[in-house]
From TrEMBL, chain A:
<dbReference type="GO" id="GO:0046512">
    <property type="term" value="P:sphingosine biosynthetic process"/>
</dbReference>
<dbReference type="InterPro" id="IPR004839">
    <property type="entry name" value="Aminotransferase_I/II_large"/>
</dbReference>
<feature type="domain" description="Aminotransferase class I/classII large">
    <location>
        <begin position="138"/>
        <end position="512"/>
    </location>
</feature>
<keyword id="KW-0443">Lipid metabolism</keyword>
<dbReference type="GO" id="GO:0030170">
    <property type="term" value="F:pyridoxal phosphate binding"/>
</dbReference>
<comment type="pathway">
    <text>Lipid metabolism; sphingolipid metabolism.</text>
</comment>
<dbReference type="GO" id="GO:0005783">
    <property type="term" value="C:endoplasmic reticulum"/>
</dbReference>
<keyword id="KW-0012">Acyltransferase</keyword>
<dbReference type="GO" id="GO:0004758">
    <property type="term" value="F:serine C-palmitoyltransferase activity"/>
</dbReference>
From TrEMBL, chain B:
<dbReference type="InterPro" id="IPR015421">
    <property type="entry name" value="PyrdxlP-dep_Trfase_major"/>
</dbReference>
<feature type="compositionally biased region" description="Low complexity">
    <location>
        <begin position="79"/>
        <end position="89"/>
    </location>
</feature>
<dbReference type="InterPro" id="IPR015424">
    <property type="entry name" value="PyrdxlP-dep_Trfase"/>
</dbReference>
<dbReference type="InterPro" id="IPR004839">
    <property type="entry name" value="Aminotransferase_I/II_large"/>
</dbReference>
<dbReference type="Pfam" id="PF00155">
    <property type="entry name" value="Aminotran_1_2"/>
</dbReference>
<dbReference type="GO" id="GO:0017059">
    <property type="term" value="C:serine palmitoyltransferase complex"/>
</dbReference>
<comment type="similarity">
    <text>Belongs to the class-II pyridoxal-phosphate-dependent aminotransferase family.</text>
</comment>
<keyword id="KW-0663">Pyridoxal phosphate</keyword>
<dbReference type="GO" id="GO:0046513">
    <property type="term" value="P:ceramide biosynthetic process"/>
</dbReference>
Length: 530, 612
């Protein structure tokens, strides 16, 4: 490199130039130089100012005003922050406000009617198949959701007994933390295998299973299209998810399509990308509050067309429909893969305690960290899983139970339909029957009146030896009706079981017939008399 | 001597326990003081009580100290009758030779951390309220760094997975036109962080969840994406279950004969809601007993502890009401509050002064925007915070709540049965009249070895809840079997079974947990929570240590729970040790040996050294 003279020269030139520059800077930036410049500044400023006043007085006026305005903005303006408004309240004033504030009572005051009701509550003392002893009286059970009569089967009880012997009662921990008992895992596998799903996850309560599953997937900003007749756990789930929700009329596929089309149009109008929002259609398989089935094939066609995922709650339909009790998908011959998320219950048809969610590994696995009722709650006692497995094995071995259940349901629905003054509101094949007062009779009645009549009929049935209940709604849901909430019509709710004998069903129909005749007559008399 | 109420010939196992205050102080002094001086320097906790000048801090200190020192002497005579001759369970010393007493039984002595004034003086501040130990700077930096590395490698793996089409998560990509089912961080966290170490959770157990458990080992064919149970099992000492009073250990002798007959009379469940046909005489009997036990007029039992909170809260408050919730409250309270539609504000964890500030502010301003007065205000706290092991400062909170006339809801999920001289929970422990708490909620899963939960309160409140809460009107009722289990467990705890087993269980739990906590603090770990609480969280901080601690403990035959995000804040990973009355002192000592080994291996002595 040194051999190249031109390069060496230019380097030397550069150093010299730099050196000169440095010297000059030192001169100018020396203490004296700076001092001189500073001392001269006021004079220069004065000169510039006078020059300005002389040549552009308008500028001076405007700019001075602007400067003053800025000073006022920064230093003199009193800022009023609405959120801190109350900080003007003195401690004394706050004390006074605290003194004056009177909360409403925590709950509405004691109601003498409650005491009366509680005294009449049905307290079960013994259970044996379809027979129960209630308040010392032998009754035929027409109220429990033990659809297949599996809860009382020897095999199931034996399984529970064996599990109790082995594991004791409680599991003493959440699933994540040594509360996973091997039977929990085995019950999940058995359920997944039975339904032909990839995996299943078990919760210790059927309702919590439903209200935990949906919020694990749908979050703020997602969209749920729900049937307006869904029961409370799904309502809670929708609430908890904080997702956007739109309702369609109960079991009305045309209305559903209208809602779906509206959303699609909005997408186009707002240029929204449908891939950015998780969208679910939320339905029940068998509606608890109505006793009718959701029209699954039509629903799936719509869901495919508009690209929604389906959440199907089979809490009541599992075990009751299809040739082998696999629920609604089997009943309608729909492939399981079309139902992305599905909840089933082991505390209804299987006669144990708890609920499950089945689906692909992705769906199930996600809930193990995000399902609130799974993550943050202790697992169910092991005997519930053992009992459920035993019940599931029985269901597999005896699919005729499902056929028997349907025969009973259809028979009962038809028989009840012939009772004058009453009307069966549920679908014929539903094992949950809703029986109301016929419109012709109840014309002009208030809801409360109708409820009272049905309650009286139910009581008459209990007196006649049949445990029949009315469908009940919480005080809050009843209150909400006046604010636009929806509540199904009042009804007697009967649950039929595969192990009800024909004689028992005939007896129940007779009891209801007599009860209805007596109560309706009395009521009609009171109405005309009053 | 763990059980001075028992005769002198205690079994060898119990003999080496050190519960006398003198011995305790002597033992702790040497090693502890050194660790103290370091922790005193780094610990914010040591400085706060003196620097804080508001009257509530002082009140809180006083009340907490008082409760730890004198509650034992105040109410030691329970209603239990003379102890019967046979209390036969493996963890209680035989009492056969004990002469039948006619008077009240000799009080079961409880091991306390500071039984004397001298003891108090010698104890460092952080011993007193260990939960306020802050993370060291070194741990914080390494923890963040650890997560950064994990996240970086996760993204690299995702990138190459997509590029070469080889990933076990490819099947999860959504069909065309659909949004991905799982989004962003949550999904990424599950795939790339949780799945790496998922073998540390959900280990299946194939025995009763007592002091010793048999754990099924698992294999994974696909890098922990799926876990398969094998035939191999491992015997472990169980420090993970909430089996506080040891009913899982002696179930065969203490409960079985009372639970099994229920199965003859009933099915395992009634398959119906409480208001329909789901109420049995077992439920009625249990509710009466629970009400009597917690000192309220009436009670209502639910099928699930989580559901108890999440369905009761919406029945109590709604729009126009305000919930003031402790920042550390359990997820079920959060779920219930969200479902209720009431507005939720939080106050600084366990700080009555902060609660007062929030209350004053809320009452003075009223509802947002309209400034109308609130309809109701409900303060929600827990008896023992399950992830912190911390005991609620109920006395201070009750004082504030009473002064402002708002309602108080106490969740006793972990404290019922475990706190107080007779196990009656936080009210008894803190010396608060149950009448001052409007709603007492608790669960049956922990101390009672059952399932479900209860709400206890005035008769009108319970009558209303029966009609207003979804858990009572819509959801299936509590299993009859569980009802009889809990009924029996409560009778034992209350001494109504004719033995003093219950009192011994409570004392054993207290002794075991205080011993465990004291030893862990002595080791120099960062231990959260208060004395007398059976939940003892030891801080791990680094994500890698979560898995290392759990796996190493498991290979050494120790089943411990490790907790990370989302159950804790992301940097505050911990192991949570739950002590039971079913553990013998020997088992506790063995557990401590193993933990000390691990503490050395993983460098967890953060109180002694910034770097652990």
């Amino acid at each position: 490199m040194a051999a190249d003279p031109s390069l060496g020269d230019s380097f030397i030139d550069l150093t010299i130039a730099l050196e000169q520059l440095w010297q000059q800077m030192r001169r100018e930036l020396s203490r004296d130089g700076v001092k001189e410049w500073l001392l001269g500044a006021p004079a220069r400023y004065k000169k510039w100012w006078l020059h300005l006043v002389e040549h552009a007085p308008g500028h001076v006026v405007v700019e001075t005003a602007l400067i003053l305005f800025i000073i006022w903005l920064i230093f003199l303006r009193k800022t009023v922050d609405p959120s801190k408004e109350d900080s003007f309240l003195s401690e004394k004033e706050i004390d006074q406000l605290v003194e004056e504030w009177q909360p409403e009572p925590l709950v509405p005051g004691p109601d003498p009617a409650w005491d009366e009701e509680d005294a009449q509550a049905l307290v079960v003392e013994e259970v044996d198949g379809t027979r129960v002893v209630v308040n010392g009286k032998k009754l035929i059970n027409m109220a429990s959701f033990d659809f297949l009569g599996l809860a009382g089967r020897g095999e199931v009880k034996e399984a529970a007994r064996a599990a109790l012997n082995k594991y004791g009662c409680g599991s003493c921990g959440p699933r994540g933390f040594y509360g996973s008992i091997d039977v929990h895992v085995m019950a999940e596998q058995a359920m997944a295998a039975f339904l032909g799903a990839e995996e299943a996850i078990s919760y210790s309560d059927a309702a919590s299973s439903v209200s935990s599953t949906l919020p694990a997937f749908a979050k703020k900003g997602d969209l749920l299209i729900a049937d307006e007749g869904v029961y409370e756990p799904i309502q809670t789930a929708i609430n908890l998810s904080r997702a956007q929700v739109r309702y369609f009329r109960h079991n009305d596929m045309e209305d559903l399509e209208r809602v779906l089309r509206e959303v699609a149009e909005e997408d186009r109008r707002l240029d929204r990308n449908e891939r950015e929002q998780r969208r679910f259609i939320v339905v029940e398989g068998l509606y608890k509050n109505f006793g009718d089935l959701c029209p699954l094939p039509a629903l799936i066609a719509l869901k495919r067309q508009y690209r929604y995922r389906l959440y199907l709650d089979q809490t009541f339909s599992f075990g009751c429909f299809g040739t082998a009790g696999r629920g609604l998908a089997e009943h309608f011959g729909v492939p399981l893969a079309d139902i992305e998320v599905m909840s089933v219950s082991i505390s209804h048809a299987l006669g144990s305690v708890g609920g499950m969610c089945v689906g692909t590994s992705e769906v199930v696995d996600h809930q193990r960290l995000s399902g609130a009722g799974y993550c943050y709650s202790a697992s169910a006692p092991p005997f519930t899983s053992s009992a459920a497995m035993a019940a599931l094995a029985l269901l597999e071995k005896e699919p005729e139970l499902v056929t028997k259940l349907r025969e009973n349901a259809v028979w009962l629905a038809r028989a009840l339909g012939k009772i004058p003054g009453l009307k069966v509101r549920s679908q014929e094949i539903s094992p949950v029957l809703h029986v109301g007062v016929a419109e012709a009779v109840s014309n002009g009645w208030t809801r409360e009146e109708e409820e009272r009549v049905l309650q009286a009929i139910a009581r008459a049935c209990v007196d006649a030896g049949y445990a029949v209940v009315t469908s009940k709604y919480t005080v809050l849901d009843v209150e909400a009706v006046s604010k636009g909430g929806l509540l199904p019509e009042p009804s007697l709710r009967l649950a039929v079981s595969a192990v009800h004998t024909r004689a028992e069903l005939e007896g129940a129909v007779e009891a209801i017939r007599r009860g209805a005749a007596g109560v309706l007559k009395k009521h009609a008399g009171r109405r005309t008399g009053g | 001597m763990a059980f001075p109420g028992s005769p002198p010939q205690t079994s060898g196992e119990e003999a080496n326990t050190t519960s006398s205050p003198a011995a305790t102080t002597a033992m702790t002094n040497g090693k502890a003081r050194r660790s103290l001086s370091t922790s005193g320097r780094t610990s914010r906790a040591a400085a706060t009580p003196t620097s804080r000048s508001n009257p509530f801090a002082k009140l809180r200190r006083l009340s907490s100290r008082k409760s730890t020192t004198t509650a034992a002497d105040a109410r030691s005579t329970g209603p239990s009758s003379a102890p019967a001759s046979s209390s036969s369970s493996h963890f209680f010393p035989p009492v056969t030779s004990q002469p039948a007493q006619t008077g009240p039984p000799a009080p079961v002595k409880i091991d306390r951390p500071f039984s004397t004034v001298a003891g108090l003086r010698d104890m460092p501040k952080s011993y007193e309220r260990g939960h306020e130990v802050p993370i060291t700077w070194f741990a914080a930096i390494t923890t963040y760094f650890g997560y950064a590395v994990l996240i970086l490698f996760g993204h690299i793996r995702d990138f190459f997975g997509r590029m070469f089409g080889m990933s076990r998560y490819l099947a999860t990509s959504p069909p065309p036109g659909y949004a991905p089912l799982l989004k962003d961080w949550e999904n990424f966290y599950t795939r790339r962080l949780y799945h790496r170490i998922r073998d540390c959770w959900e280990r299946p157990v194939c025995s009763a969840p007592g002091g010793r458990i048999t754990v099924v080992e698992r294999d994974s064919p696909d890098g922990n994406k799926t876990m398969l149970m094998t035939k191999r099992t491992r015997e472990c000492l169980n420090l993970g279950s909430y089996n506080y009073l040891g009913f899982a250990d002696d179930w065969q002798t203490s409960c079985k004969s009372h639970v099994m007959p229920t199965l003859d009379n009933f099915n395992s469940c009634l398959c119906s809601a409480r208001m329909d046909l789901g109420t049995s005489r077992e439920h009625v009997r249990l509710e009466e007993l629970v009400a009597r036990y917690v000192g309220k007029e009436a009670a209502l039992v639910y099928n699930m502890g989580f559901g108890t909170n999440s369905t009761t809260i919406p029945a109590l408050v709604g729009r126009g009401s305000l919930i003031i919730s402790d920042t550390m409250n359990h997820s079920s309270i959060v779920a219930g509050s969200r479902a209720s539609g009431a507005l939720v504000r939080t106050f600084v964890h366990n700080d009555a002064a902060s609660l007062e500030r929030v209350l004053r502010d809320a009452i003075a301003r009223g509802m947002p925007r309209t400034h109308r007065p609130w309809r109701k205000i409900l303060v929600m706290v827990e008896g023992i915070y399950s992830m912190e092991g911390e005991i609620c400062n109920l006395k201070g909170i009750v004082e504030v709540v009473k002064r402002y006339g708002v309602y108080l809801y106490v969740d006793e999920a972990h404290s019922i049965g475990a706190l107080g001289e007779t196990g009656r929970g936080i009210c008894e422990y803190a010396g608060v009249d149950p009448a001052d708490v409007d709603i007492l909620m608790g669960t049956f899963t922990k101390s009672f070895g059952g399932m479900g939960g209860y709400i206890a309160g005035d008769k009108a409140l319970i009558q209303y809840l029966r009609r207003a809460s979804a858990g009572s009107v819509y959801h299936n009722s509590l299993s009859t079997l569980v009802c009889s289990q809990v009924y029996r467990a409560l009778r034992v705890i209350m001494g109504e079974d004719g033995t003093d087993t219950g009192r011994r269980k409570i004392a054993a739990l207290r002794n075991n947990s205080n011993h465990m906590r004291r030893e862990l603090i002595k080791m120099g770990c960062h231990v959260y929570g208060d004395y007398d609480s059976p939940i003892i969280p030891v801080m791990l901080y680094n994500p890698t240590k979560i898995a290392a601690f759990s796996r190493e403990a498991f290979t050494r035959g120790l089943a411990v729970v490790v907790v990370g995000f989302p159950a804790t804040p992301i940097v505050l990973s911990r192991t949570r040790i739950c002590v039971s009355a079913g553990h013998t002192r020997k088992e506790i000592e063995r557990a401590l040996e193993v933990i000390e080994e691990l503490v050395d291996l993983l460098r967890l002595r953060y109180a002694n050294n910034v770097m652990g």
